[in-house]
Amino acid sequence: MFNGNIVGNIDVASIAFWAFVLFFIGLIYYLRREDRREGFPLEDDLTGRSLGMGGPLLHAAPKTFKLPFGRGTVSTPTIGKEPFEIAGRRVSPFPGAPYVPTGNPLTDCIGPAAYAERSRLPDIDAFGNNRIVPMALEPSFSIARGDPDPRGMTVIGADGAVAGTVAEIWVDRSEHQVRYLEVVTAEGVHALAPMMMAKIRKSARQIVVDAINAAQFSGCPQVETPGQISRYEEDKISGYFGGGYLYANRARQEPLI
């Protein structure tokens, strides 16, 4: 007979447990749908055949995001296959086999020289200003007292030859550090070399960039607009110099033993 004692007739611990189980199942279901907004549908590694999204219950409907500072919108997941041809051939016909470059590996977006199709607009700070700029455009920046000024120093490539001279420094307004060294080659090409790949020899007034050879500085990806660099151009430059640690010369591609 019901005596009016509600709590005494309900197993609160059991209700809490099953509520958590149902919530957790729902959370996993939601996250598995959301994480398919990028990188799907999967493709067969050998044939390129699409493996599908796994049914309507396993992928979420497209969602549109508003970009800050009036830069439009972006929707995910994208519809259809993104056109891209790999400038390389497989060394063996099995999944996961490495590719051998068939063109210029430093610019063909392959292996360590790969880059992403990022925005063609420059990265901006919290105030809407271009984040990475030449130091000449940011008078509040200066070289710290006691530190060597790279401008005017000679740049040496991985082969020990002279690549050019540093004409300008590109700084990051948000993180207050040097991002690129603008190197002018003998041919008059302006190449942006990542600062993290440079080693300064203060006494010799030299900067060694061992990622690529001296002659390869002239082939470095260029910025379209003087005084600013887009996110896409950042990735291409990083890929060019990063790929040099494998592709700059033949000896780097061979086994150590």
UniProtKB/TrEMBL annotation:
Domain Photosynthetic reaction centre H subunit N-terminal, residue spans: 5-136
- PRC-barrel domain segment(s): 148-214
State any GO BP term from the record.
photosynthesis, light reaction
Q: Name one Pfam family in it.
A: PRCH
Q: Gene Ontology terms, cellular component aspect?
A: plasma membrane light-harvesting complex
Recorded source organism is Blastomonas natatoria
SUPFAM superfamilies hit by this protein: Photosystem II reaction centre subunit H, transmembrane region (SSF81490), PRC-barrel domain (SSF50346)
Membrane-spanning ranges = 12-31
The answer to whether UniProt assigns keyword Transmembrane helix to this entry is yes
Q: Coiled-coil segments, which residues?
A: none
What is the designated name of this protein?
A: Photosynthetic reaction center H subunit
Keyword presence, Zinc: no
Arranged from A to Z, the UniProt key words for this protein are: Membrane, Transmembrane, Transmembrane helix
